[in-house]
Amino acid sequence: MPELPEVRTVASVLKKELINKKITDVKIIYSKIISKDSLDINLLINKTLKDITTIGKYLLFHFDKYILISHLRMEGKYFIKTQDDSFEKHEHIIFNFEDNISLRYHDTRRFGRMTLIKKVDLHKVNSLKKLAPEPFTINKEDFYQRINKKDVSIKTLLLDQTIINGLGNIYANEVLYVSKINPSRKGKDITLKEASTIIDSAIDILNLAIKEGGTTIKSYTSSLGVIGNYQQYLKVHKKENEPCTFCHMPIKKIKINGRSTYYCPKCQK
DNA sequence: ACCACCTCCTGATCGC
DNA sequence: TGCGATCAGGAGGTGG
Asked: Is A109 one of the catalytic residues?
């Protein structure tokens, strides 16, 4: 369930539970979660977790000399449990920590990936190198320049993490709705002013989502969900045929580049 | 270089 | 009800 706000929420909750704890054991149940170019995950045994940070949708677990990079993709989740030799269906990687804590990586569709790297190699990681800035720090002029020549829909461009980092399908839909921009319009037809509006909307929406994600995390006495409660704020995503909050026309659903896209045909020009 | 499409997976839901 | 088809908050790889 990972877009930028959910990933940040996961990071902050995990940090509270795991910071300064030492890993005592690692179990790899489904090894494809670990990318081919990863160092051996067992190197983390006896290492102490120093910090957890995020870059867009990536989670970074920092150790003295190593960083574990984790991307949840569609359905990756972390659960905190007490140690137990058994594991549930869809738990693929288990990190046991001191104090009887067990961190479980759970991923129904198995799309998520983890890579262990040396800290000194962080700047060499291809997937991270290509990322654009997050909406909070992006330069509007640079963003405009990146979309300016593209013969691709603005919806597709907002999902491209090298154009802007952190939006997924839900927030891309929401951002364009609030910005009153039709998702099918080509990047090259978006004006600087519209590009600026997109960034402002993205910041507002993500900030609210981060705030809500932080307040709506489920109790994690035995497990840690990543479930935010931002659904209640969604205005277009999954709202096909429901009235537009501005003009009351029914929201339409179409496919753009294979992804479900919701918009108001009247308000989004 | 750019861009549309395929692929990786499982499970819930849709439609006939 | 049964069952195959489609869909789901992502992104890397491929090939035109």
From this structure: no
Annotated active-site residue in A5, A8, A57, A134? A57
Which residue type is seen at A9? T
Active site residue A17: no
Residue A19's domain comprises: 4-118
Verify that A99 and A200 share a domain, yes or no. Answer: no
A242 in the same domain as A178 = yes
Spell out the residues 6+ positions from residue A131 whose beta carbon is closer than 8 angstroms to its own: A55, A56, A161, A162, A165
Catalytic residue flag (residue A98): no
> For residues A59 and A14, what is the distance between their CA atoms, to the nearest angstrom?
11
Residue A42 in any domain: the answer is: yes
User: Does residue A46 or residue A77 have the better pLDDT?
Assistant: A46
Cβ burial A74-106 (10 Å sphere, 16+ → b, else e): ebbbbbbbeeeeebeebbbbbbbbeeebbbbbb
pTM for the model stands at: 0.95
Catalytic residue among A2, A5, A135, A183: A2
pLDDT score of A227: 58
CA A82 → C1' B15, Å?
44
Does A264 score more than 70 pLDDT?
yes
**Which of residues A118, A151, A171 is at a domain's end?**
A118
Q: Which residues are within 7 Å of strand B by their Cβ atom? A: A 32, 89-90, 108-111, 149-152, 156, 257-258
CB distance A82 to A29 below 8 Å: no
